[in-house]
User: Fold this.
Amino acid sequence: MDQVLIIGAGQVGAHIAQSGIVKNLGAHFQLLDPDHDLTESQTLDLKDTLLFSKYSRVSHVKAKQLNAEELDVIIITAGANQKPGETRLDLLDKNTKILKSISDQLGKLNPKTIIIMVTNPVDIMTKIAQDVFDLPKSQILGSGTLLDSSRLRWRIAEQLGININNVHGYVLGEHGDSEFVAWSGVNSRLNLSDEEKEKWELAVRSEAYDIIEGKGATYFGIGSSTIHILSAILNDTHEVMPLSVNYPHFKDETLRNIPIGMPAVIGKDGVVAVHETPLSDREIELLEKSARTLNESMKK
Assistant:
């Protein structure tokens, strides 16, 4: 059974585990969090769902008990919560310190371990994880703009009256305020004016803020999208999805070192390939601008 450690037993971590159990991934989910009472309670609640899952297991573990060399995948959700009015980049300093502490606690990892970063700002945290953990960059990826793309696609599906699985299109760039819709790859039947496109982009980009304002945090969407990534890794599906990865096709070499939301082929080795994505000239400009925004934040 694949050993999956989820670091952070709050709403996001617990919903990731719950989504994995419902999907029957056949994994052993272990929850790790400094709040032991919370971790035990979340684990008990999750165990109550095991009757309805044929293959999954769930347990909680303390850092001292953990053998990191046995882990196949580590999902990191731990971090300070994003408050209303606070951007993802505002969280950077707090969450960088948390990530370094996690690395120290885990110690030596299995050289084949895959790390999925979920903590925001996810693109920069993925870069920091690549620097902190002694693993190839291809084995450290972030949740990127997969969730943002889902937010785009359900809107398109409702507009066109079709199944969401027949909708094509990506949100690319930073998982944050400089992200953009790559309209050149969106379903051709969707006839929107430039003004309508701007409204749609704003709705997708601001959805997280709207959810946080209303109920304090987002967790259903990120739980499901993270398990979608995990499934591609455990089952070696080679599915293409927009994640925080290093994009080797930037003309500016500096930008190639910054993980950013771009379509990548995902399998048991993590990032299998990142092919050049056909984009319009305007979309290339937006992508480079987003990467520079992230690069400047990294410098700070």
User: Anything to note?
Assistant: The chain is about 40% helix and 15% strand. The CA atoms of residues 180 and 286 lie 7 Å apart. The domain at 146-299 is CATH 3.90.110.10 (L-2-Hydroxyisocaproate Dehydrogenase; Chain A, domain 2). The first strand starts at residue 2 and ends at 7.
